[in-house]
Design goal:
- This protein has helices at residues 9-21, 31-51, 54-77; strands at residues 95-101, 106-107, 112-123, 126-138, 150-155.
- It is α+β, with helices and mostly antiparallel strands.
- The protein has two domains: 9-77; 86-155, no CATH class.
- Helix 2 packs antiparallel against helix 3 (54-77).
Length: 158
Amino acid sequence: MKKVFRLPLLPLLCAYTLGLYTADLLPAFPSPMGLLGLIVLLFLWAIGMIIRKTSIVTPLILLFFFALGNVSMNVYLDPPLPSHSLRRFVGPDPVRIEGHIVKIPYRSPWRTQLLIEAKHLLRDDQVLPVKGNFLLFLNESDPPLTVGDRLRIFCHLR
């Protein structure tokens, strides 16, 4: 009989942790493809368990937990965005954003920070509805702005 691990969960934990750690380094699969790959690995593992091939089962279960960690972390690293999300317009091109201040401005002696909820994005004479918050930094120490004020801003989103 083959050698049995005394700590059977330790290799699984290591494979899962390695999958979490390498999620940023490996290319991300789209959610349906990642889930399909996990199901195939689990199915192959089940077949290996039925025919009792330990030489196949051990690498498959380790690969399954590695892929599970990778897919789980990629959901947080690259979440699926709705079509009207403000994050879709991040780039080098300047855009006009219309929104209102949702939090009391943070004022310091050098600058002011405003949390703004975007409602509309104006690009190429089109008004697009958007949803999302962004933080705006002003180089003024005490602008006359308060919660609820509507703003139209021409800026680059980063």
